[in-house]
Write a structure and sequence with these properties.
The chain has helices spanning 3-22, 24-29, 32-38, 126-136; strands at 41-43, 46-50, 61-70, 76-81, 94-98, 103-113, 119-125. By secondary structure, it is an alpha+beta fold. Helix content is 32%, strand content 34%. It is built from 4 helices and 7 strands.
Length: 137
């Protein structure tokens, strides 16, 4: 595993573990979709997120990561990441999304139905998040 990915994994682990320990009551109020979006970190040309350890029904969790890349030669393609994981997300696992420099759009949409049958959906622009992370650090 490259050093940058290790550092990013450590940062995600610390930020999620610290948030879970310091904000345990608040994390119970956040939906699984919110917890996943809040766990996003960026670095070394990738984004990473963590599936919460508790309160997730993997078969009720859908994460769609899609976008478009346009290359210098004019060729473009649609991008879809981690599709095979839908229905089989593993709690307390970190997933990585490569951020291709040719991306013109990349969005992650998280949809989760809880034990009470309530569905929460959240979308995040991964390119905007990466730009914001780069500007702040």
């Amino acid at each position: 595993m490259p050093t940058g990915i290790l550092a990013m994994t450590a940062a995600l682990t610390i930020s999620c573990s610290g948030a879970a320990m310091a904000l345990q009551p608040q994390s119970e109020l956040l939906s699984a979709a919110d917890q996943i979006v809040e766990s996003l970190v960026y670095g070394n040309g990738a984004a990473a997120f963590r599936i919460p350890e508790d309160g997730i029904l993997p078969e009720k969790l859908t994460i769609r990561i899609s976008g478009r890349a346009v290359y210098e030669d004019g060729f473009s393609m649609s991008l879809h990441y981690l599709e095979e994981a839908n229905g089989a997300w593993k709690p307390d696992t970190i997933y990585y999304i490569p951020l291709d420099p040719a991306c013109t759009e990349l969005v992650m949409t998280v949809s989760c139905t809880d034990q009470n049958g309530e569905t929460t959906e959240r979308s995040v622009d991964l390119l905007a998040g990466e730009a914001q992370a780069a500007a702040s650090g």
